[in-house]
Amino acid sequence: MFFVALSQILVDRGFSTVIVQRSVESAEEKTAIFWYTIIVSLFIAAIMFLIAPWFARFFDHPVLKPLLYLSAAVVPLNALASVPTALLQRDLRFDVIAKSGLAASIIGGVTAVVAASLGAGVWSFAIQAAIYSILNSTLIWIMGRWSPMRGMRLASGRHLIGFGSFVTIAGLLDVLYIHGSSLIIGRLHGAADLGFYNRAQNLQNLPGGILAAIVNRVALPLFAKMEDLAALRDYMRIVQGAIMLINLPLMAALIVMPDLLIEVLYGEKWLFTAPILAILAFGGILFPLQMVNMQVVLSQGRSGIVLKVEVAKKIVGLVSLLVGSLYGLTGLAIGQAISMYIGFLMNAVITGKVIGYGFARQIRDLLGVSLITALMAGAISVIRPTLHLGSAVNLLTLTAIGSAVFLVAALVFRVSVIDQILNMGPLRRFSRFIPVFGRR
Fold first, then answer.
1. Measuring CA to CA, which residue among 84, 78, 79, 90 is closest to residue 36?
2. Intra-chain end-to-end CA distance of the chain, in Å
3. Structural contact between residues 394 and 274, judged by C-beta atoms closer than 8 angstroms
4. Which of 55, 74, 279, 362 is 20 to 30 A off residue 417, Cα-Cα?
5. 241: closest CA among 358, 32, 415, 40?
């Protein structure tokens, strides 16, 4: 996973962001970008082939060698879809991206489950990744209906390398930090502890990762079209509020009942990860907002600032990782949580300088959502000790109660983002029948 994520950043070289932010229209430039990604993907695949034997020996897991060989073959497949996907994203044709991704995910996922049931083990994940890449790239080309011009025409894209390089380096730092931490844990603490930590991390990352993916796909092309900073600030406020209406209650649920979630989803043998999950969830509260802030700054063509911030964030994250590793998996989780909050602070400060919507204003606008989330978490914490219905039933009951408390509180207190959503389109009539006890 480390090398696949790393190769995706290197292959793309930030050109997807260039296509969206700079509104690249020239057929020659699109063709040049396409061939750049293909050449780089083949180069990265060759490197992965060469280092696979050494990597397997270093971690003392021989299976890593053939796994890396298959992963290397997937890299050029992903590169084929890079430019067509960026063009669809720029043109806001997210339906095509969603259809191809959903079809590839379902088929790849079903195949992986079948392979696992037949005893394929870790190869199930590798097979899933390969099938997803083949299907997604094929469907993107068929439905996107774009093809490069004849000839490589590399010179046409040279002037775009500067902006793309900043974005690429920032992405590399992010991958090195996120996946590099797994390499460090695996080397220092062993595969078993890495498995426990990754199980908690993957569950915590699921909602935030989905939201971040949506933001990365949708936000940049929309932000880039806004020339009025006041309108951009308003739109950013709505986007952040809507995201936190989803992320905050989900993270709160992971914090107050991690053991129930772990036991029901994975079984009692994974309960060791529950405290780690709670700590990571606390750190993941503001994670999607980092993505929003970064996309806003990129939409203004300030990739150089994004790179500087990412360097500073990763230095903080690395220090937190190294210090935390001295105290085991719990220390690692605490270090990662702290670095997430510092990262948001850095991103928000830069956004304040670029468009005038900084850390203090962003936090103030989230107080209402935070209040109703606290009410939800409090209700779950009070009711949970009274339930003795079994783990699965308890989880369903508490989820229903927490959801009800959150929704009622959101409508009654009418936090600002709720007002904005209710005043949109057909919901405007409904908003008149909801009592208002205060706004946050």
1. 79
2. 42
3. no
4. 279
5. 415
Structure tokens at 123: 């190869």
Q: DSSP states of 119-164 as a string?
A: T-TTHHHHHHHHHHHHHHHHHHHHHH---PPSS--GGGGGGGHHHH
**Tokens representing residue 269 in the block:** 């043998």
Radius of gyration from C-alpha coordinates of the chain: 23
Could you read off the pLDDT tens digit of each residue along the chain, which spans 440 residues? 777 777 666 665 556 666 665 555 677 777 777 887 788 788 888 988 998 999 888 888 888 899 999 888 888 888 888 888 888 877 778 788 888 888 998 999 999 999 999 998 889 988 998 898 899 889 988 888 887 777 666 565 565 555 556 566 666 676 666 666 677 777 777 777 777 788 888 888 777 777 777 766 666 677 777 778 888 888 888 888 888 888 899 999 999 999 898 888 888 888 888 899 999 999 888 888 888 888 888 777 777 787 788 788 878 887 887 788 778 788 888 988 898 899 889 989 998 888 888 888 888 888 888 889 999 999 999 998 988 888 889 999 999 999 999 988 887 776 666 666 656 544 455 445 444 444 44
Residue found under tokens 């992963």: 71
| CA pair distance 134, 389, nearest whole angstrom | 45
Structure tokens at 47: 């490197």
Q: How far apart are CA 365 and CA 201, in angstroms?
A: 28
The tokens of 229 are what? 């900073």
- Neighbouring CB atoms inside 10 A of 439's CB total 11
